[in-house]
Amino acid sequence: MVLQAIKYSRGQLEILDQLKLPHAEEYDDIYSSTDAWHAIKEMRTRGAPAIAIVAALALAVELTNMKLPSIAEEVKVFIIEKLDYLVTSRPTAVNLADAARKLKKATEESATREGATGDSVREAYVSASEQMLIDDVSDNENIGRHGADWIVKNTTAAKTGPVSMLTHCNTGSLATAGYGTALGVIRSLHAQGNLKHAFCSETRPYNQGSRLTAFELVHDRIPATLVTDSMAAALLRLRGPSENIAGIVVGADRVAANGDTANKIGTYSLAILAKHHGVKFLVAAPRTTIDLDTKSGADIVIEERPGREVTLVKGPRHDGVHLDLAVVETVSIAANGIGVWNPAFDVTPAELIDGIITEVGVVEKNSEGVFHLDKVFEVAGSTIKPSTVGGI
Ligand SMILES: CSC[C@H]1O[C@H](OP(=O)(O)O)[C@H](O)[C@@H]1O
């Protein structure tokens, strides 16, 4: 069975409730933009690409099932207001704002056409949002292939045989419309026969790694080991050579124009470790995550989440022998009264990033150490391009 974070058919949308994974696979119906806003805010659905797609499709479902005004302008205004509302659900990942911008443009263009009606504006929106779902999967498969090819060609480890990679957070089918970005690179290495082992970090405090990435790796029968975030340095120092670790590959929530990258908290420290241990540090992200309007990481808003996500852990009861899925408990793991800082993301400076893997190729810094990310938008569409291994 293929792992699906998002189930969509015209007029119907379901999301896999990721707060219940890995022990329960339950889907929630999403009937409206409001349903989507709360699902994104609560992180029942999460992951930069998935957030954008769920938001876009939720509005498509709402429009499909509602009694629509006949006047094109009224439907256009409704759509724009709902997109502005959806964008407020989570601030750091740019994909949602990027999708809203593109959907507004498609809506405004349809509303100005000769003979435009409420129905024609709705159809234009729904078709554009459905195309985003389709494009994301093909983009991720291209990211996987480009990333795997680059690792095989450009890492020392690959010269001796199949490589191992460490990844952080969840960037797989549960963070996208399918296949994944950084985890897609690991999937592609595995499919090529070039993966020795995948290591995934727990990713406190939300545990996307232990709950979601581990779930995907077990599901796909990819040889993998879970480590805590604090074990990453020891892993590279003590097992890097024996495991033939080639590098660390992560996703992104927003890549600034200079290559500074906002991603799950803990990413920055992994980039420092990669530099210290002489392994590659790679960011895997579709072009919808690259934000040329944000000049550098200093301009990226970092979402801070409730302290209870650090101090409380929720899950099914385990008595040390048996797992009781029928009893979900919340456990306090911190002293009452302690202050908590809980930034959901950090920013990794471009100088620590060896390559940014996109669906049209891997971007590397030039001889002056500068990323020119504008180049990736000069490639027509997301059509499969000859691998640009070695960088654009
Ligand atoms: C496909 S990259 C997804 C990106 O989003 C995650 O954040 P969250 O789980 O809070 O939505 C994480 O930063 C991943 O790298």
Automatic annotation (TrEMBL):
One annotated Gene Ontology cellular component of this protein: cytoplasm
SUPFAM superfamilies in alphabetical order: NagB/RpiA/CoA transferase-like
Major localisation: cytoplasm
**Does the keyword Repeat belong to this entry?**
no
Cross-referenced Pfam families, in alphabetical order? IF-2B
Task: Tell me where it resides.
Answer: Cytoplasm; Nucleus
Q: Which domain of life is it from?
A: Eukaryota
Q: State the protein's purpose.
A: Catalyzes the interconversion of methylthioribose-1-phosphate (MTR-1-P) into methylthioribulose-1-phosphate (MTRu-1-P).
Family membership noted in the UniProt record: Belongs to the eIF-2B alpha/beta/delta subunits family. MtnA subfamily.
Q: What is this protein called?
A: Methylthioribose-1-phosphate isomerase
